[in-house]
Here is the input.
Amino acid sequence: MTSPSRPIVDDQLDLRGFLAVMRRQIALILQVLVAVALLTALYLSLTPRAYTATALLRVDPMAISLVEASGGSPSAQSSRIDTEVEILRSGGLALRTISAQSLLRDPDFGPRLGMVTRMKTALGWEDAAETFSNDAELQHSLLRFSEALAVRRIGLTEIISVSVTTANPDRAAAIANAHAEGFIQDQIDSKHRAAQAAREVMEAELAATRLRFQSAEADLQRTRESIAETGNAEAARATRLAVESAFARDDWQGIISELESDSLAALVRQRENLRNRLSGELAQELSADDLRATLDAVERQLDQELQSALSALDFTAQTGFASDSALTDLYSRQQEAVVARRQYEQVLGALRELEARAALHLADGRIVSPALPPLSASSPRVMLVVSVAVFMGIGLAIAGALLKEYHFGGITSVQQLRNVLATPVAASVPLVRLPGADDVAADLIDETPLSPFAESFRRLRAAIDLQLPRQKGAATVIMVTSAFAGEGKSTAALSLARTYAAAGQRCLLIDADFRNPSIHRLMRISPTRGLHDFLQAGAELEALADDDASNFYVPDRVAGLHTVLGANPSVIPTDTVLQSEGFRQLMQNARALFDVVILDTPPLMPVVDARYLAAMTDICLFCVRAGSTDQRPIREAFQELPDSHWAIMSVLMGGESRKESYSGKYNWAA
Here is the structure.
């Protein structure tokens, strides 16, 4: 008989399934929501209130500086505003506000003692007044002030907001206004300092240009006088005669005095120096020939300069006008005087304009909206915190519900069991409250056949028959197991066996849990020897004597049900017994003699027996007690089942009761 693969169960979670999960996990959801609400309330009650006051400044990016206009392109204007924002954030301006508002002694901005320091101070080991130096106090106050201050440009506008957050609303407004006013005053002071520095520079430049202008005017006047003098023909002839007379006497000083030539004076000094070197000890520096050659060149140049001067005097004496070189010199002197005058006038005008602007003392920014004491706290933001808490609580509740439904905690519903194991759920057996401690739930099958408990096993029997129709001449072997002990598998095995027997089927229930047999306790029988004892001894079922077989092979209280019981737990490994020839012969005989054979097997996780028994069965019922075992070991145990079965079904023991099936006209049956 070939075995089909395990049935594929659609575990997609639709809206209806999601709502069902939420309904099943409503207790966890409420717990999470209550916990989040309590934490939110605790946070809001313990968090100190903080108030934020904001002053608005407008900065003119086109303001004119002391020397030249600033601004221009949009990018330059934007950079100017960004620069003012950084100045408002600067430590220098912050220190000015700290000093103006005496924030060093303010509890919100002054230095705080750490826990260790407070303990040392309380014990007298350290003086609190000596803990911080002046620099340390300023650093602490500056840090805390920077944390309380927020400066930002509003969009692309010229408006800058200055916000201060403190525990006192009035104090926050006062500090914000003081910081903004300090910024305005700092701009005015900066203009004062810039104006003073610029005035000093311009006054020095004005003095220098005045001297240059006066010097140029004096040179121009002398040139004019010189030309006027040389322009007289008689004076020129007289000068020539004086020069010739001085030349005859070799009186070069007289020549220089008459001609007023600086170049001649320089050449004469150079000639005298060369002569002194030739006649003195300096002649050793160069050879005599080199000195004489140099002296000859100087004397030739003297003769040329003298002849040029005499030619000019001759020209003046003949024509009565100055020479071209004298006119050129006059024009040059005039241009220098004009340039010097213009420079002097420009510097003088700039100085007067600087003095006029400096007298205004206007800042480039102004306060357009002073800070007012806020009416409500800016932190914590109650509505925001509550909104975040609501969304977080809902999210955590849903996540917790889904995690518990699919990964953690016990299984509480059919849908959850179907989602976890991805296999059909054959039945959900309701929880039964038994009146006595010795009462057995399986007795309800024949005592109250119309109870929800009995109906759930009839539902289970129908699911098995539909999933695995019975073949003629061969019994259907059903394996009942679980992940751990205490899941209700033995109760399910006995109840299902009685349900088949009550339906007229020849049913055999075998207690194959050799480690911990329990069917005999549910049937209130105490056999002296069990199946394991006979299999270990090598006996076969057919060869057993009647008196021996009666110890473990007994009929049940429900007609048609026979049981093979266990007695004492095995003290040796049972896997060899389960693979013995005797047990295989037992299973072959049971298939031939009965319609249904049910095996109550050991749990999957603690021992290995169920894995060997699985190969001898046609269908496996995996029992899970509602709300008991965690989902992870249930998954691991389910994965231990081999794929050799015709079908694997799960059964939820002690789960939700389908009372709606017994409502209305069927209410009497409940």
In short: The longest strand covers residues 51-59.
